[in-house]
Design brief:
- The protein is α+β, with helices and mostly antiparallel strands and about 230 residues long.
- The protein contains five helices and eight strands.
- It has helices at about 55-80, 90-100, 105-125, 150-160, 190-210; strands at about 5-10, 15-25, 30-35, 135, 145-150, 165-175, 180-185, 215-220.
- The strands form three sheets. The protein has a four-stranded mixed beta sheet, covered by helices on one side. The protein has a two-stranded antiparallel ribbon with strand order 1-2.
- The radius of gyration is 31 Å and the shape is elongated.
């Protein structure tokens, strides 16, 4: 880093001369910033639009089929025993294994771990909304909800960034809370390009109309040397 240098004097209200410190601007190979802007207002929800909840039809269907099959098989075997027929072989083997096998055996521990993992997975599915790729948009009507796909939002930001003078290529990674932009500039000062990107992308995020606008992070660098 270059040393600060004194470039002149300034006068305070009392008339005292105070040296003004100027820093020589270094040659930049990369420029970064995090743009700050006011999020769009939402109607009827001070904390922003809530996320969409996934119906999770596949896990629910598989679990329902598993429970239905197991309950039907067990009920059939119980009715057969009540009708003076011998119990099914799998139930006799299971009862014998549960009575004779020690609890610290590898098979019992593995089965318990598998059952606990499945139960934990089902609990996570029950308490989390899912649909992480769908970003809720601000509600202009109380009875209407809209969402924007995360990939479509990233494409919109990329197209807006490519309109900035000096930008050669752009890569946008969009999450629910952050828009991470990586741009390559082949001419103009990097700080100037980054400033224009900050302004253009902040406006673009406003135009997306998201209920919870993501934070904006911009990086600008020179293209790598070939060979």
């Amino acid at each position: 880093m270059s040393e600060p240098r004194t470039g002149g004097t300034d006068l305070t209200k009392q008339g005292e001369a105070v040296p003004v410190i100027e820093r020589a601007e270094p040659e930049l190979d990369q420029s970064a910033s995090a743009a700050a802007y006011q999020p769009l207002p939402t109607l009827g929800d001070e904390d922003g639009s809530p996320r969409f909840w996934s119906a999770r039809r596949v896990p629910a269907g598989l679990l329902a089929l598993l429970i239905l099959g197991g309950a039907g098989l067990l009920l059939y075997d119980i009715v057969a025993v009540r009708a003076d027929h011998p119990a099914m072989r799998w139930r006799r083997d299971l009862a014998r294994e549960l009575a004779e096998r020690p609890l610290d055996s590898t098979a019992v521990l593995a089965g318990a771990a598998a059952a606990a993992a499945v139960g934990l997975w089902l609990l996570v599915l029950a308490v989390t909304p899912g649909l992480r790729a769908l970003l809720p948009m601000r509600r202009t009507h109380a009875d209407v909800r809209a969402g924007l796909d995360r990939g479509a939002a990233a494409t919109a930001l990329r197209d807006r960034a490519m309109d900035v003078s000096g930008v050669r290529s752009v890569r946008v990674r969009m999450s629910r809370s952050k828009a991470d932009v990586r741009a390559v500039s082949h001419f103009r000062e990097l700080d100037d390009v980054r400033g224009d990107l900050d302004a253009a992308l902040a406006d673009a995020i406003h135009d997306l109309g998201l209920g919870r606008p993501p934070a904006l992070s911009v990086r600008v660098a020179r293209p790598g040397r070939k060979g």
